[in-house]
Write a structure and sequence with these properties.
Layout: E1 3-8, H1 16-29, E2 33-37, H2 42-45, E3 50-53, H3 55-58, E4 80-83, E5 89-92, H4 95-104, E6 109-114, H5 116-127, E7 132-136, H6 152-173, E8 175-181, H7 188-196, E9 201-203, H8 211-223, E10 229-234, E11 246-249, E12 257-259, H9 262-273, E13 277-282, H10 294-313, E14 318-323, E15 326-331, H11 332-335, H12 347-354
Parallel strand pairs: 1-2, 1-6, 6-7, 7-14, 8-10, 8-13, 9-10
Antiparallel strand pairs: 2-3, 4-5, 11-12, 14-15
């Protein structure tokens, strides 16, 4: 009997449980056994964190947010922080231990669900000889090799709902509301939610913005008897000749930083230049929570079932990818080679400009 193990790593995203459900159901239909590794690779480091998953165990989890297996941003096996008996934190490479435990358990393959960081780790294990299938997960939608990642649609829906609610309070007090959303170096969440949520300005990492242009947009609103404004800012956006705002160091074990603070900076600048009441709001992890939308739920189920099909074909070292209208696969190395950023010539960007949304540039 084939045995497979599934793990969920990196930041959580709505739809993770739907992937787990689809993997367990699809594998069981083939007569396979499925195990779940808690908190990323912890189940392959300590067998106490390895759990057997049956169809009964996953019944009803598809609409649930989060992941029943847990996740971690500190779980890079090639650079893992371990606290020794003296209470000191040491960085240790436990990859060989994981490989040995994988073989001892007799696993046929590992299904790794995650974003670029998790998939990069999966690729390294693939190079070490572990049969790996990747499943793309990120609310940022920034993986180039797939048209869409699950979690994105739910995050956009959450952000759009927040913007809808902010309109009434902003209008009641003639306020400018600056809303910071996630997305790292890609502006997908900001663009989609900003257009759908009726924003006056959308600031994205793909366009260096001018505060003066935003002020011009808000002043134009006043001329047309609209005395409030909604400004959506992606966390990775930067002003002209400015730098990306950083809120701290990353926990991912890579040379990355935690983005954040640009929303407050924009609000402070607008307050300084305009005779307006300006408030800022960081949506933060609210965008990661909640039940997945129908779109994300279906996409996640398709990814999970697709991963098991790839495993059945022995197509290891690949990631499941959605190229509408079909599920396909790409080598893991291609999946992590570049980030998908907003195409400034796309119809969505043109739509934003056509309906009068300021993108912070001179166009």
């Amino acid at each position: 009997m084939r045995k497979i193990v599934i793990s969920t790593g990196g930041g959580d995203a709505p739809g993770l449980n739907a992937v787990i459900y689809a993997v367990v159901k699809s594998a069981t239909m083939r007569g396979w056994e499925v195990y779940g590794s808690r908190s990323g690779y912890n189940g392959l480091i300590d067998f106490d964190d390895l759990i057997r998953l049956t169809p009964n165990d996953v019944e009803g989890i598809t609409p649930m947010g989060g992941t029943i297996l847990g996740s971690t941003n500190k779980g890079n096996p090639f650079s893992m922080p371990i606290t020794n008996l003296a209470g000191e934190v040491q960085i240790v490479d436990v990859s060989e231990r994981i490989m040995n435990n994988f073989k001892r358990m007799g696993f046929y393959c590992h299904i790794a669900v995650g974003g670029d960081g998790t998939l990069e780790i999966a690729h390294r294990f693939s190079e070490m000889g572990m049969p790996v299938i990747g499943v793309p997960k990120t609310i940022d939608n920034d993986l180039e090799a797939t048209d869409r990642t699950f979690g994105f649609d739910t995050a956009v829906s959450t952000a759009t709902e927040a913007l809808d609610k902010l309109h009434s309070t902003a209008k009641s007090h003639d306020r400018i509301m600056v809303v910071e959303v996630m997305g790292r170096e890609s502006g997908w969440i900001a663009l989609y939610s900003g257009i759908a949520g009726g924003a006056d300005a959308i600031l994205m990492p793909e366009i260096s913005f001018s505060i003066d242009k935003i002020c011009e947009k808000i002043s134009d609103n006043d001329l047309h008897h609209k005395h409030y404004a909604i400004v959506v800012v992606a966390e990775g956006a930067a002003a002209e000749d400015g730098k990306v705002m950083v809120s701290g160091e990353s926990e991912l074990g890579r040379d990355e930083v935690l983005l954040g603070g640009i929303g407050k900076w924009v609000a402070d600048e607008l307050r300084r230049r305009l005779d307006k009441d300006v408030r800022h709001l960081i949506l933060g992890h609210l965008q990661r929570g909640g039940s997945p939308t129908t779109f994300d739920r279906l996409l996640a189920l398709r990814f999970g079932a697709g991963a098991v099909r790839l495993a059945d074909e022995g197509k290891f070292g690949h990631m499941v990818a959605w190229t509408p209208p079909v599920m396909t696969s790409v080598p893991l190395i291609d999946a992590i080679s570049s980030k998908k950023r907003v195409d400034l010539t796309s119809d969505k960007v043109m739509t934003a400009r056509d309906i009068g949304i300021c993108l912070g540039d001179s166009i």
